[in-house]
Amino acid sequence: MRVPGIISLLFLISGVFEFNVVYSYTLPIRGNKIITPLKNDIDPSDPQQVRISQVGQDRMRISWFTIYPTPATVQYGLTPSANSFSATGVTDSYRYMLYFSGPVHNVVIGPLQPNTVYYYRLGKCPKVYTLKTPPSQFPIKFAVIVSNFILNDIYAGDLGQTEYSKRTLQQISNSGYDMLLLDGDLSYADTVQEDWETFGRLIEPFASQRPWMVTTGDHDVEKIRILHRRSFTAYNTRWLMPFDESGSNSNQYYSFNIAGVHIIMLGSYTDFDSKSNQYKWLQMDLKNVNRKNTPWLVVMFHAPWYNSNTDHQGESQSVGMKASMEDLLYQARVDIIFSAHIHAYERFTRVYKEKSDKCGPLYITVGDAGNNNGYNPYFQDPPPDISYFRERSFGHGTLEVANESHALWTWIRNDDDKPVISDSLWFTSLSSDSNCKVHHL
Predict the structure, then answer these.
(1) Which of 103, 177, 340, 354 holds its CA 20 to 30 A away from the CA of 399?
(2) Which pLDDT does position 167 carry in this prediction?
(3) Residue limits of the Purple acid phosphatase C-terminal domain (predicted)?
(4) Is residue 312 flagged as an active site residue?
């Protein structure tokens, strides 16, 4: 496909002026605290914490909670009556020490038309929701965040929700994204299960309209020695991802295709050595990628492999996972790798084995969408040669894939509650570079 002239010009400009930058600005003052309580007049069988996620090429999973049991059914269609089609799913629940969750409903609907608005109703509730399916071909726009946009008192285990975080969500919504990618640390519940519910109610107006695809972070583990020995209990029940469909045996790692992009979600806090199920699954998944159908290859995991911040250095989830899996991702010619964990923003050049490599992935840390209590302000000085842009700021990113060869990455800083483009880069897919042939281990 021929690249439009404006894309060629912007790509040339971004390539010419790319250099190492460290930017700093004054962090905004935390907004007034708000909460998203359960409404007093809610019917116990009414849906709450509604969200959607992609399952396969033309299906969506709709997930929601109720206080009392209710049918796991969805009526949907192309008109506000939402009664053209019907689907039935499953109901689950979980126990966490003394906490018992309400019913968790999951229903898969489809086949659905791409880039189309659908109306839907849940259970016996008359309320009508809307969702928009992503496009099936280029261009496509992703919003990329880590859940630190919720301002938390992580030390007290108290989920803080502020006017600032709500405005951040609104800015993301206003960007016109097709799908949201969230790189772990969803609720910062940190064992306080009611905070998962509060988080779910906060994001419902957004997550019920566009698919949210997520992976896990350290705050999602919630394993307590002796008291609760299972990891990811809440996450696995509340955030069911399409792992079965991608041949995975764990909700911690999976993959999916969307509009010419193959996206792989990995688990930093799940076994990752060469004998692990995750490693073997990744090896298989990469071998099955067809770069003619999905010329773009994107990977996400929580703990960054490359990091010039003074915090989170030398952690096994970063060092060990990198030692185990970097060769796999490099040989497969992964285009871009997103991580979080560091509460700051940093963009590296294409990297392999600590050095610049034109066939290596772009590494980007998007770790601070607004966590005011736990930001990581200190970078190593001077920056390493492979670190091209970094700043201690709040914000989110967008990845706009224009066609099979060109994409635009943009880091959008929240400045005085307004979105400000702070960093952007046009770059090309490795599948379009004849010098970067795919080699599988």
Answers:
(1) 354
(2) 66
(3) 360-417
(4) yes
